Amino acid sequence: MAYCTTTDIYLEAGTSLGTIQINDITSMITRSDAEIADILTIKGVSAPSSSSLLKTASIALTIAKIKRRQSQELSRTNSASVGGDISYSVSPEAEAAAYEAKAKIAIDQYVLSINGGVRVSRVRTSRCH
Question: What is the pLDDT of residues 57-68, one digit of tens each?
């Protein structure tokens, strides 16, 4: 019951992933989907066989795992100098955290859609005087 595929990951993250191979990505997807199922269980919602929101969450969690692994393996540095005064810096950890936040939002939106959205009650103020 994978919510996303390796193709989805390559489309979002690109194919230059350092030492990460397709089998690694498949394992990361499996782990991300297990995390999603655990979160849904805690929230009292059954995991569906497919959902576009949970696909988004799966892609985001998997890419977060890729960013962390690249950082740990040093296959993706925090900064580089291209030459002269041209340089750049990135934070793989900040990128991973941003992807995890995106996944959390997608999961929360899925749960909200299953639970019927936000319910609002009207309060009659004419009798509250």
Answer: 999 999 999 999
